[in-house]
TrEMBL record:
Alphabetized InterPro entries for the sequence: NAD(P)-bd_dom_sf, SDR, SDR_fam
Name this protein carries in UniProt: Short chain dehydrogenase
Family affiliation: Belongs to the short-chain dehydrogenases/reductases (SDR) family.
Annotated Pfam families: adh_short_C2
Organism annotation: Proteobacteria bacterium 228
Length: 265
């Protein structure tokens, strides 16, 4: 049962064909929202759409192939959402993954690529959908960010720096958009089950270990107090709260979804 009724509202999720994005689409559909989601991989997007339509046959659902780093593509996505579903009142920015590198081995090109990905995967969708959001009551933007924004790791220097900038961007947009009735918040995720972790699991040296054993040891090495990796659905719950009117008096803030891994105040 959905924790809030979102019938009559339109939500947009970037990077929605797998992981946290997909779990967020599911939760929004359960609550009755019309949902548009995008991704770069057309095959993965089609597969996700098929599964969602099987589960939610009556849903108003739009799947659109789009590279969020391509401004014309993002603008075309926004125009299609408005035409087919109506003006969006919720935008969830969920795109990008981590880059493993130290300061010494991060090239200029890698710095540019990482900063461009993290910032413009948010800037372009916000620019494209802001006019729609401004036309809706209690509109919201949610940015999926990482605990690295507050707790950087030396082996992920470029990603940590970019994530910190996104945390600042969320607060800046929240201040600027508040008079227009658009709230902006984010979540800070720790280690969450994903395709990336599944691929590392498949490459494990101790082949006798199953997924719970392998991730349990990983959580122990990473000193996660709850002793496990997070689930995409758990991150989606936090996103849902911030995107929906459940958080109508919350803007410029971040929810920590790290299983206690956070050491920052």
């Amino acid at each position: 049962m959905a924790i809030y009724d979102l019938h009559g509202r339109v939500a947009v999720v970037t990077g929605g064909s797998s992981g946290i994005g997909y779990a967020t689409v599911e939760l929004l559909l359960e609550a009755g929202a019309a949902v548009a989601f995008c991704g770069r991989d057309s095959d993965r997007l089609a597969s996700a759409e098929t599964r969602l339509r099987e589960r939610f046959p009556a849903a108003r659902l739009l799947a659109h192939t789009c590279d969020v780093l391509d401004q014309p593509q993002v603008q075309a996505f926004a125009e299609r959402v408005a035409s087919e579903l109506g003006a969006a009142s919720m935008l969830v920015n969920n795109a990008g993954q981590g880059r493993v590198s130290t300061f010494a081995d991060t090239s200029d090109a890698a710095w540019s690529e990482e900063l461009n990905l993290k910032f413009f995967s948010i800037i372009y969708p916000v620019r494209a959908f802001l006019p729609q959001l401004q036309s809706q009551p209690d509109a919201s933007i949610v940015c999926v960010n990482s605990l690295l924004a507050s707790q950087p790791e030396p082996h992920m220097v470029a990603t940590s720096a970019a994530r910190a900038g996104i945390k600042n961007l969320v607060r800046s947009m929240a201040f600027e958009f508040a008079p227009q009735g658009v709230r902006v918040n984010g979540i800070l995720i720790g280690l969450v089950e994903s395709g990336q972790w599944r691929r590392r699991f498949e490459q494990r040296e101790q082949r006798e270990q199953d997924w719970p054993q392998w991730t349990g040891e990983l959580a122990q090495r990473k000193h996660i107090p709850l002793g496990r990796l997070g689930l995409p659905s758990e991150a989606a719950n936090a996103i849902f709260f911030l995107a929906s009117p459940l958080s109508s008096y919350t803007t410029g803030s971040h929810i920590d979804v790290s299983g206690g891994l956070s050491r920052h105040a």
